[in-house]
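Now read the record:
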Amino acid sequence: MTAVLEPVSPPVFRFKKMASSSRSPDRGSVQQVAIKALQTRNVKVERLDRSVFRAFRLQPLSDFFYVLRCRPSSHARLLRHEEERLQTEAIVLQTLRGRTDLLVPRLIEYNKTIMPLGSQYLINGPFKGSILSEVEPDLSTQALASIDKSLGRYVRQLAQVTGPAFGAVRPLNGSSSTTTTWSRCFASLLESALRDGEDALISLPYDFIRDQSRRHRAVLDQITQPSLVILEMSADKNIVVDTNNNTVSGILDFSTAIWGDPFMSDCFYQPSASFPEGFGRLPIRDTSERTRQYLYVLYHSLLAVVRQCYRPSEDGDELAARRKLTAALTQLGNISRG
């Protein structure tokens, strides 16, 4: 966030070889880590209902809260792009540090050792407001529309942050990405998901998906300015809202951020009617924009299918994702033949 009312230490980075653990951090250990990181004597610890990465809300005696997120159990099946999420988020938050034009949490601590929680972990914040998934049932249709419109404005602000090259967000003092085109970056993301599917022997039209990606490479390369995009950000459990004015006050997880095309965010996968009012428009201006959007729907639906097969207990509708995947491939095939 841009306003911080509590004194906290500068970000602490500890890099050692990490070993995975199946042990879930106990609240006492999390509380001791939080007390030290947040420099306060009293911190309430609450487990958050999130996906595969374990997360805890850290609530000092104030209106603000922080989030501690750590790696999942060693028994959890991670996809290729999920392996380095905590490190990616640490780099992203460091890159965005000091910006006053964005509601971005601060990186409080990033610990890549397995001590003292049995897992590497990251603490970010502060956040002010409520997690949308926890208050959504009590909000009116009008309030939810206002929040969706505010989310559109938030994504537009992120898109105004530009980077040096397409691909991963690199450390501030690190080398720049070698990805020179958006088509190569997209192909790499898509291939990662496809290989995860092949590894799990999931029934999918792999050759046809790769072929359609190659055929429409030229429309991807019409994107020449790398912008900040969070690929997976639209989940209600990832959005913090101010229920006094029904606006977005923060995003909990920046771990899927890349330099790319803003329209690839999953916010455009199934947008509400109010979201484009905040962002400005939907990507339907011409055939090239629509083609790119079919490719992005292809990516997100493919990822949803693969993720659900890897971890069936997570929220998700594989059949709906397969229908979207089929529809996107059909549209891309029609464009190719046209």
